[in-house]
Amino acid sequence: MYFSNGCSIFEFTNSKNMKKTHFFSALFVVALMSSCTSQLNDLQLKTSGDKLEVGASENSNLFPVEDDAVRLSGTKSEQMLALLRKVDPKNSLSLYRTQITEEQFQEIKKFTEDNIVMGITSEKDKHDAIFRWITQNITYKHSNNDPYEVFKNRTAICQGYANLLKVMAISQGIPVVSVNGMLVPFGGHAWTYVYADGVWYMSDPTNGKISLAENLSDYVAYEPSWAELALFENDEFQFEYNDAHLNVTQVKSTDLKVTVPYSAGGFVVTSFSPISALSDNIKEIYIGKNIETLGENGVVGLKDYGKLVEVVHIDPENPYLESYEGIVYKKQGDTTTPYYIPAHLNRIVLKPKLMYGKGVVVGHEYVEEIVFPEGVEYIGDYAIEKCPRLKRVYVPENAELSRRALYNMYQSIEVIYGDGGGTGVPVVTVD
After folding, report:
1. Helices marked H in 116-254 — which ranges?
2. If exposure means fewest CB atoms within 10 Å of the residue's CB, which of 49, 266, 281, 287 is most exposed?
3. Which top CATH class is 89-223?
């Protein structure tokens, strides 16, 4: 091992082919064990017999049972309308995640009563009066979109328009759901659905558009993807429309083993991506064949909010997801890069593939060993990053390891060529 100007040069020698691979990194060092005896004693504790088989669990009866629920289908507006037909409108009287203090809310409420809806009796007419006031008094401009700031400053973009309409309408007892999605072809947009006099309306104050929600042809350019509303709720779970899925947003259960439900409100649950912390008691999660996603665009709820989950069991009949050695992979698209790795999995055995690129395992707090399986030919830059407890990495003897494959580590890492990650103990010669 050599050191130069804060950088390390690492040389590993495989005894079979005398193959040498060099590493360069300013952020980590590699320490090889001083004797094969100590290495043998350590590795004997972690052989293939310790591998976690997931999906064929002895508790497979914990997977949810299929029922008569229907999957959301059609356009996103059609999906949203189907949900609104089933939801209790009273659920939409809550401000939910809207950022506003009680004092601010009461100020807006009084202003609305005294200056906008005074003398008006019907809910629809009250909504229309609020709608007109917002369109006439708020200027479209990038600024703070919190409803109180919009109310005081009279400036906002679409999110601020929707937020203020929501607060004003709810202050008058009118249910409102704020949504985000796309306004084709212009891009991302925010608007609302309002329940007035027993009827749902699509209400977009930014563009001055109101339509009966049932008249889908009137607003075909609107594609909602997220709704700020607890659509359905029971003692164990809360469900929302997130990323065009009926999603489990909150897990209330404190059981050791949790089964993700098959349906809610008569609809198939297709996403499991919580947005709040799971109980520390939960160690195992059972996912049926209904779940299509654990989160999209890099946002996987379990990664952030299920820190103590040890294993996720996937129904073998699930056509979208599968589990391999305790890691969840997609069955469509990128099927070989880990989709979700339980935070407490301390030994990661990767799924076979020819080449690994950037971001295979990043920011895993508890992993101590990573095994690249036989058949791998190349492991590229930044494949493994920011794993503070990582101690050793097993690499097939004929694989090429990029010099930045292991990057931004926090302690010495041992790289072992050979069969150490499989059924036997590696034969390693240290120069």
Report:
1. 123-137, 147-153, 158-171
2. 49
3. alpha beta
Residue whose C-alpha is closest to residue 171's, from 84, 263, 105: 105
Phi-psi region of 379 (alpha: psi -120 to 50; beta: other; left: phi over 0): beta
Query: In terms of Cα–Cα distance, which of 416, 356, 386 is closest to 25?
Result: 386
Question: Which ranges of 138-242 would DSSP assign to H, the alpha helix?
Answer: 147-153, 158-171
Rounded to whole angstroms, how far apart are CA atoms 248 and 309? 16
| Cα end-to-end span (Å), the chain | 9
The whole-angstrom separation of Cα 110 and Cα 95 is: 17
What integer pLDDT is reported at residue 59 of this predicted model?
A: 64
Q: How far is C-alpha 67 from the geometric centre of its chain's CA atoms?
A: 26
Closest CA to 9 of 27, 23, 30, 26: 23
Give the pLDDT confidence score for residue 14 in this predicted structure.
39
The Cα 192–Cα 173 span in angstroms is: 15
pLDDT of residue 209: 97
Residue 299: predicted pLDDT: 83
Query: What one-letter code names the amino acid at 20?
Result: K
Strand partners, 87: none
pLDDT (0 to 100) of residue 378 = 95
The secondary structure of 326-356, three-state, reads CEEEECCCCCCCCCECCCCCCEEECCCCCEE
Strands of the sheet with 369-371, listed across from one edge: 347-349, 369-371, 392-395, 414-417
Instruction: Give the whole-angstrom CA distance, residue 1 versus residue 359.
Output: 27
Regions in the chain scoring below 70 on pLDDT: 1-60, 419-431
Closest-CA residue to 127 (of 80, 172, 191): 172
Whole-angstrom distance, CA of residue 317 vs CA of residue 320:
9
pLDDT digits (tens, 9 = 90+) for 27-47: 333 333 333 333 323 332 233
Give the pLDDT confidence score for residue 419 in this predicted structure: 58
**How far apart, in whole angstroms, are the C-alpha atoms of residue 296 and residue 321?**
13
Boundaries of every domain in the chain:
1-50+347-431, 89-223
